[in-house]
Amino acid sequence: MAHLTFYEPFFDLEQLVKPFGTSRLNINSVIPSSGVLKPKLDLHENTQKNLITATFELPGVKKEDVQLDIHNGILIISAENKASSEHEENGYAIRERRFGKMSRSLRLPQGIKDEDIRAAMADGVLTITFPKSSPDQEPKKISIA
Prior knowledge:
Protein name: SHSP domain-containing protein
Strand content: 25-35%
Organism: Agaricus bisporus var. burnettii
CATH class of one domain: Mainly Beta
Oligomer: single chain
InterPro entries: A-crystallin/Hsp20_dom (IPR002068), HSP20-like_chaperone (IPR008978), Small_HSP (IPR031107)
Distance between the termini: 37 Å
Helix content: under 10%
Order of helices and strands: HHEEEEEEE
Low-confidence stretches: 22-34
Strand order of the largest sheet: 1-2-7-6
Pfam families: HSP20 (PF00011)
Family: Belongs to the small heat shock protein (HSP20) family.
């Protein structure tokens, strides 16, 4: 499998705080999160077709509320899941579902062109497919002067 590097700016902070979230009281069900949520990701490599498929869970998010951007070889997935305005905010005894902004980034292999990336969304699952490597990217020799 190809070596893929993920850009997650808050990875170290998450690792530092993780031990504090193991108490018996589930703080997340009592206090709503005000931070940016990170969608879960599955990454699959198909060596025969030279393709990588990234699948992101975005439950309750509409296709129109998802944005995909590429910047300096990094694919940025951002979305927003808005809470329903049907129910009164203070009427909940338990509220485990999370609402708010979601973001995740994925470093793309070198040489991938924007037109090589395919995205589709169905049933709250975003699927992005792109080549593992670009056939144009062959090693180049540099002559020494």
